[in-house]
Amino acid sequence: NAITIFRIVLIIPVVSALLSEDFLAALLLFFIAGASDGLDGFLARRYDWSSEFGALVDPLADKILLVFTYIALAIIGIFPIWFVVIVVARDVLVLGGVVFYSLFWEPVKGRPTLMGKACTFVQIGFGLITVFQLAVVALPSWVQTGGIYIVVVLCFISGAQYAWIGVTKVREVNLEARNS
Prior knowledge:
Blueprint: H1 2-19, H2 23-46, H3 52-75, H4 81-104, H5 114-135, H6 141-179
């Protein structure tokens, strides 16, 4: 839990470094966040250290870092606003669906889908590639353009998948309630 909280606290210097266009510092802080996430996962598995707080907040810490990074990159003109709106909207819709379902039916017990994990993985990778190329070496423009479109496609596919799963689950629960 302490490592997860550390990762959340790291969001402030990461965003600050990005907004001040100190991309090398931002890249270093990203690596520290990534290493702490890996260490956190390793320790949790190795010593069976798990908690409800950690299970909830650990993936949230990653998402918050990712969202704020994308917003900062849009503010300084690296990412187009429409792109960040799509990425953030998908996360808000998924989280909103989970909260809505949990409030009106039952707590969500599902795990992230493979497509959801792929979307998050690609978003993180694209964020790192973007900061890397700003800090270290410029990459061809097609890398940035291609990355944006890949992330957008994955956002739409995984968002639609989560929406379908949610609607299907609501139908099942309502059908079970009618039949009992």
